[in-house]
């Protein structure tokens, strides 16, 4: 069965905004945190579907900031276990619920399960449990919000850190220009499991919410990679968080698409950029406002800047070749 | 909080980390004449510190200063420039 993205209109959003928040205010996320906007949008899309929902959270900024012991900002059933086993915990919760339904201890109805994990908890630590849960085929949506380092523990590099980014464990100097490697192709890895895979950005809420609903409606596991700007670790002023997220999409550094089996579809701004390639912005526009890439604009690392642009172009070209647009 | 047995039951609620408005250095001020009630700021606010605008009642957005951390995303993203950030104490 192919994936059909529901149309989320401005009017729908106006209606949903009356539903009330699931991720309430007063949490400890930094001022200007992209994960806060992401969590609000994802939970609201789930609430708008009407079915009960529950959440599993891997260790990360979102978990630490929203559940200061013994309080919780989540107006929903919510479970945290550890860094490495968010997907396994979700599998257990889903199967326990199914077992209780079989025994008549719980009414038979569809419950939407969403797992939140950061890039550290997905790219590095949680990948094996995620892959295992997907292989077993439990019905959940896994949302990885990638802010490109372990921002919660002191900005250490992760598998999701972009090439050339300064972190405390990849400091730029005369020898290395920040992180040496390109980030892990996580969306492609998850797509290779033959599950619906989405990428989304909190700067484009209607696109994000449509993808959340499509992922939850799908019977079986689905994966979503969200670009989550972080003003603390990516080093920019908090008010331009959403601008940074928009620039990541407009420079084709973080394309918006979804894929299921052989089908690759570009959505939103990325689809428009594929049709009008001259509107694509140079990667400098995305790198320049962020302090973590500041060293790349020194004369000695100019070569690195060209290299990053070439890699972005190459990845974008390959994606456009295999993808269709909506 | 709900009525019922006199047990200290904790429910999920606003203000997990207290009134996070204390964190603020700049606070947002709305020019209600410029607000077109598009709710774009409401969508982007990471703290849900913006009360949505109501087109039917012709009400513009308003701020929840108890929880607004003063990040300034709303002022940056407002298509009409209806929100300005003012330093606290002025």
Q: Which features does this protein show?
A:
heterodimer; A: 326 residues; alpha/beta; Rossmann fold; nine-stranded mixed β-sheet; 12 helices; 13% strand; globular; B: 90 residues; alpha+beta; two-stranded antiparallel ribbon; 11% helix
In brief:
Chain A is an alpha/beta fold and 326 residues long. Helix content of chain A is 38%, strand content 13%. A 9-stranded mixed sheet of chain A has the order 2-1-3-4-6-5-7-8-9, with helices on both faces.
CATH architecture of chain A: 3-Layer(aba) Sandwich
* Helix vs. strand class of chain B: alpha+beta
Please list the strands of the largest sheet of chain A in the order they lie side by side: 2-1-3-4-6-5-7-8-9
**SSE pattern of chain B, N- to C-terminal:** EHEEHE
The percentage of residues in β strands of chain A lies in 5-15%
Helix content of chain B: 10-25%
Mean pLDDT of chain B: 89
Poorly predicted runs of 5 or more residues of chain B: none
**Count of DSSP strands of chain A:** 9
Largest sheet of chain B: 2 strands, antiparallel
How far the N terminus sits from the C terminus of chain A, by CA atoms, comes to: 18 Å
Mean pLDDT, all residues of chain A: 94
Multimeric status of the protein:
heterodimer
Number of helices of chain A: 12
The H/E string of chain A reads: HHEHEHEHHEHEHEHEEHHHE
Helix fraction of chain A, binned, reads 25-40%
Identify the overall geometry of chain A. Answer: globular
Q: What's the helix count of chain B?
A: 2
* Cα radius of gyration of chain B in angstroms: 16 Å
Radius of gyration of chain A from the CA trace? 19 Å
Described by strand count, sense and barrel closure, the largest sheet of chain A is: 9 strands, mixed
């Amino acid at each position: 069965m192919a994936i059909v993205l529901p149309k989320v209109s401005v009017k729908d959003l106006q209606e949903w905004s009356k539903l009330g928040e699931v991720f309430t205010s007063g949490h400890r996320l930094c001022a200007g945190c992209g994960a806060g906007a992401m969590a609000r949008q994802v939970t609201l899309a789930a609430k708008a579907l009407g079915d009960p929902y529950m959440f599993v959270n891997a260790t990360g900024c979102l978990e630490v900031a929203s559940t200061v012991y013994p309080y919780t900002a989540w107006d929903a059933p919510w479970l945290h276990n550890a860094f490495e086993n968010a997907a396994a915990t979700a599998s257990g919760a889903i199967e326990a619920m199914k077992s209780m339904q079989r025994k008549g201890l719980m009414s038979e109805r569809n419950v939407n399960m969403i797992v939140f994990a950061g890039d550290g908890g997905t790219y590095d630590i949680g990948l094996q449990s995620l892959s295992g849960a997907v292989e077993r085929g439990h019905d959940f949506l896994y949302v990885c919000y990638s802010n490109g380092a372990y921002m919660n523990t002191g900005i250490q590099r992760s598998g999701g850190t972009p090439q050339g980014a300064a972190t405390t464990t990849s400091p730029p100097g005369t020898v290395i220009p920040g992180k040496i490697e390109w980030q892990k192709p996580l969306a492609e890895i998850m797509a290779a499991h033959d599950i619906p895979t989405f990428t989304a950005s909190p700067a484009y809420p209607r696109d994000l919410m449509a993808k959340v609903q499509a992922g939850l409606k799908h019977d079986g596991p689905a994966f979503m990679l969200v670009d989550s700007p972080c003003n603390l670790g990516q080093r920019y002023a908090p008010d331009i968080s959403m601008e940074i997220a928009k620039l990541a999409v407009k420079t084709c550094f973080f394309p918006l698409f979804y894929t299921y089996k052989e089908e690759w579809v570009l959505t939103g701004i990325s689809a428009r950029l594929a049709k009008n390639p001259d509107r694509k912005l140079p990667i400098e526009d995305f790198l320049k406002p962020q302090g973590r890439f500041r060293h790349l604009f020194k004369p000695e690392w100019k070569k690195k800047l060209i290299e990053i642009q070439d890699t972005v172009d190459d990845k974008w070209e390959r994606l456009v070749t295999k993808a269709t647009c909506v | 909080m709900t009525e019922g047995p006199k047990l200290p039951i904790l429910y999920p609620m606003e203000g997990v980390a207290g009134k996070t408005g204390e964190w603020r250095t700049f606070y947002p001020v709305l020019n209600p004449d410029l607000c077109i009630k598009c709710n774009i700021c409401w969508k982007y606010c990471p703290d849900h510190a913006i009360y949505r605008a109501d087109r039917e009642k012709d009400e513009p957005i308003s701020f929840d200063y108890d929880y607004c951390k003063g990040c300034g995303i709303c002022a940056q993203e407002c298509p009409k420039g209806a929100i300005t950030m003012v330093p606290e104490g002025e």
